[in-house]
């Protein structure tokens, strides 16, 4: 501390504060003003001290404002919460990539057992310390093994132990000699539009990228990504490579599995709800597949024109257009023209919602269904059967492997669903695998394939026979869409990769 006390007052200068007493200012300022040239040092010192005092006061006010501003404090608290969340959840996110079954050594001999992961083709999340990983079915595709890269850069080979194409989910198991970091599931039924969510994944190979957004909408269906849709829509940035990665709430709980985006759109991504994910995982681990209830009806939406014909409000239920002989609905007395209103008290107003609700029951379980028939409400009890894989779907597995599409026989239900008006023969495309030759050439779900290599086909069996009979590398399909026909040439994946 320096002290100047020669002019009847004291000016005290310390390293932490500047004090100018009233007496000092009163005595020295007039002297400096009358004779600034005679006292240049005193004048300079006074102006420096006065300016410093003002600056110090301004600084103190700013610091005080910063410390007491509640808005700024809350922003800093939110920032701290997000960084803490990132540190906690990112270690549970993995990178998933293809595995090369063998590589050639320098001497030309193959080296089995070595894998060569390509840069991030997908993501996944570890859900227990033993190395169980959840991802999308379309991330693993037809592979039995995939490359896994953990947060500590450790590389491993994961075994695909279960898949469910109908929900686009798959589970993978990796071995580890120590417990792994993992994430826990939250209750997705409690999500609300506007809640904060965080997506973590490997977009374009950029490991464990974190993006923040909100829940934009709930219960999204008819997106044509899977058979049973109940998507969470979010504006948290999701890009290629995020597929299979987790969507977290602000507590760090997994509330969804990121699965898709709308091409050429910004801020429109979709995630499979955590509750659906847990149900599928449980069945895959218990039974090796997913067992779903089956009603045995063809259904369609109640459009405005149909609602008028049946004397009801648009969207007030689901219209039954076909009852399959010998199936549960037929045995319980359900008839075409019935309007299905609710299942076990749960209102159903879209075909997708009805299919999802019925599929959520265990085969053999009794359900109480309310219908509207000729203006009168009725209660029907139905013993659900197990939904069997349609023969066309089983037969189409080989076609899906080669071309990246799934086809089924043309039925009245499919004709209604995809608005196929012509009573033609052929097979309907019910799924197009992302990144497949079929997608690359523009084939869409709902297309009617009428010819294979210039030969007409009647059903899936005929479709596969035509594919097998012709040894051409490229398959020529004649496809009908919206009343017009197109020729499309496809090269099977096995040929395309040679």
CATH class of the largest domain: Mainly Beta
Oligomer: single chain
Class by helix and strand content? Answer: alpha+beta
N-end to C-end Cα span: 83 Å
Q: Do you know the CATH topology of the largest domain? A: Thrombin, subunit H
Relevant terms:
498 residues; alpha+beta; Thrombin, subunit H; Pdz3 Domain; 6-stranded antiparallel beta barrel; 31 strands; disordered N terminus
Can you tell me about this structure?
With 498 residues, this protein is α+β, with helices and mostly antiparallel strands. It has 4 domains: 2-68, no CATH class; 88-101 and 114-288, Thrombin, subunit H; 293-386, Pdz3 Domain (Roll); 391-496, PDZ domain (Pdz3 Domain), CATH 2.30.42. Helix content is 27%, strand content 32%. The chain has 14 helices and 31 strands. It has a 6-stranded antiparallel β-barrel with strand order 4-7-8-11-10-9. A 6-stranded antiparallel β-barrel has the order 12-13-14-17-16-15. Strand 23 (366-373) and strand 24 form a beta hairpin. Helix 1 (22-34) crosses helix 2 (40-68). It starts with a strand and ends with a helix.
């Amino acid at each position: 501390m320096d002290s100047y006390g020669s002019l009847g007052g004291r000016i005290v200068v310390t390293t932490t504060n500047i004090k100018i007493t009233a007496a000092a200012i009163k005595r020295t300022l007039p002297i400096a003003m009358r004779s600034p040239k005679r006292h240049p040092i005193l004048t300079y010192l006074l102006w420096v001290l006065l300016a410093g005092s003002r600056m110090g006061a301004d600084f103190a006010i700013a610091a005080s404002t910063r410390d007491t501003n509640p808005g700024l404090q809350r922003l800093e608290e939110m920032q701290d919460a997000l960084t803490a969340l990132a540190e906690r959840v990112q270690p549970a996110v993995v990178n998933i990539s293809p595995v090369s079954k063998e590589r050639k050594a320098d001497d030309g001999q193959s080296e089995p057992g070595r894998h060569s992961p390509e840069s991030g083709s997908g993501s996944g999340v570890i859900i227990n310390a033993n190395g169980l990983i959840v991802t999308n079915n379309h991330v693993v595709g037809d592979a039995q093994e995939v490359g896994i890269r953990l947060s500590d850069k450790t590389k491993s080979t994961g075994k695909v132990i279960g898949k469910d194409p109908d929900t686009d989910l798959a589970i993978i198991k990796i071995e580890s000699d120590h417990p792994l970091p993992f994430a826990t599931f939250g209750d997705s039924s409690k999500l609300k539009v506007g809640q904060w969510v965080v997506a973590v994944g490997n977009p374009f190979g950029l490991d464990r990228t974190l993006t923040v957004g909100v829940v934009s909408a709930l219960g999204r269906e008819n997106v044509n990504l899977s058979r049973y849709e109940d998507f969470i829509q979010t504006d948290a940035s999701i890009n290629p490579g995020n597929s299979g990665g987790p969507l977290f709430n602000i507590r760090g709980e997994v509330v969804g599995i990121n699965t898709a985006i709308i091409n050429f759109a910004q801020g429109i991504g979709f995630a499979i709800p955590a509750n659906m994910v847990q149900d599928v995982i449980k069945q895959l681990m218990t039974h090796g597949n997913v067992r779903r209830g089956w009603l045995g009806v063809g259904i369609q939406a109640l459009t405005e024109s149909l609602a008028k014909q049946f004397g009801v409000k648009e969207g007030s239920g689901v219209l039954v257009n076909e009852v399959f002989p010998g199936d549960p609905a037929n045995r319980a007395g359900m008839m075409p023209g019935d309007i299905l209103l609710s299942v076990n008290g749960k209102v159903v107003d879209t075909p997708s919602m009805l299919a999802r609700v019925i599929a959520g029951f265990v085969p053999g379980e009794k359900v109480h269904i309310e219908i509207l028939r000729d203006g009168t409400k009725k209660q029907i009890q139905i013993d659900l059967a197990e939904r069997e894989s349609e023969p066309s779907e089983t037969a189409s597995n080989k076609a899906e492997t080669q071309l990246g599409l799934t086809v089924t026989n043309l039925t009245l239900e499919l004709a209604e669903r995809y608005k196929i008006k012509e009573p033609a023969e052929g097979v309907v495309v019910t799924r197009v695998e992302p990144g497949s030759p079929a997608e690359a050439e523009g084939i869409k779900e709902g297309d009617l394939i009428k010819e294979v290599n210039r030969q007409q086909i009647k059903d899936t069996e005929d479709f596969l026979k035509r594919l097998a009979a012709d040894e051409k590398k490229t398959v020529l399909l004649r496809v009908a869409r919206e009343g017009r026909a197109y020729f499309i040439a496809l090269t099977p994946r096995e040929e395309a990769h040679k």
